[in-house]
Amino acid sequence: MPRVSLASVAAALRISTMTVSRALRGKPGVSPELAARVAAAAKRLGYRPDPEIGRLMHYLRQGKKTGLRASLCGLTDFPQETEPAYCTRLHRRAAEHARALGFAFSVVRIDSSPKGLGSALRSIRARGVEGILLLPMVAPTAFAAEGWEPFSVVAATSSVTAPHFHEVVPNHAANARLLVERLAARGFRRIGLIELESHAERTREALPAALAWHDARLRVRCAPLFYRDDALPDVAAWARHERPEVVVVSHPPHLPRFRATLEAAGLRVQWALGNSRGFCDLAPGLDERDDLIGIAAIDTLSSLVIRGERGIPPVPTSIAIAGQWVEEPAPQR
């Protein structure tokens, strides 16, 4: 039985093949009534898109484009002077990959308040930006749902808690398990954790969960210490009570202070980083592969731009990038 084509549907309705194609792809310029008639006729006749033809047409449409395909931008509320190295490397790698694919790319630093975000989105739209890459934020951030309709959006961070966009992020659960397994393989039973509350939230409590499993499996108990950035904890009192053999720190910039406090109290422990070593390299720990996250996020965002997918997706997808364990660098000679 011959395959039902677009031309078959067009002939049945006495309209052009181009109109049928635009109607079935949801493109502008076709009235809702006509689009409904086309969809009904396609279903009645048994029309199914040919994936090979679809791929060919996508290739041909791309081949017609010259110069920059579109303008993309990264969005963050980190001031440039305080931005962690991890974030800087992520958006630089994203920018490199975007330009290699033919897209312009810039970083926009915003006030994450509702008023500041709305103003930034209007300004970005006026500049002709079609795709937004959400970069790490200072703290877990819930944005307003309005204003995203003109843009394709991908989050390269777990710190944007709402709306839910397609995302490319570290595999926090797998990374936390890797960290605990590496420490356990070295003979550490009592693994302590000093974690920022905001970091636990943005990483979906991955480290506390992995350590709870470790403690249950070995029948030990070393309670984690959670704190806020504006109220540093009494780490010496905690260490005396919990007796950790190694301490995982989720916010690397605080590690030197914690280490000095325990040394002054006569408490000696080993240290590991539970966040990306892109923040500092004072101890062994996780490398969350910001380079791969930047590349994969741009691949995802460019696909959305090319396909014309805009706004908040009805079913967001998530790509989780596995990290790797990195040892402490050798001392300089």
What name does CATH use for the topology of the largest domain? Rossmann fold
Subunit arrangement of the protein: single chain
Regions with little confidence, pLDDT below 50 for 5+ residues: none
Helix content: 40-55%
Class by helix and strand content?
Answer: alpha/beta
Shape type: elongated
Contiguous helical run count: 12
CATH evolutionary superfamily of the largest domain: Response regulator
Gyration radius (Cα, Å) is 25 Å
Mean pLDDT: 87
How much of the sequence is in beta strands?
15-25%
Question: How would you spell out the order of helices and strands?
Answer: HHHHEHEHEEEEEHEHHEHEHEEHEE
Give the class-level CATH name of the largest domain: Alpha Beta
What is the number of beta strands?
14
* Tally of structural domains: 3
CATH-derived architecture of the largest domain? 3-Layer(aba) Sandwich
Strand order of the largest sheet: 2-1-3-5-7-13
Features:
333 residues, alpha/beta, 434 Repressor (Amino-terminal Domain), Rossmann fold, 3 domains, six-stranded parallel sheet, four-stranded parallel sheet, 14 strands, elongated
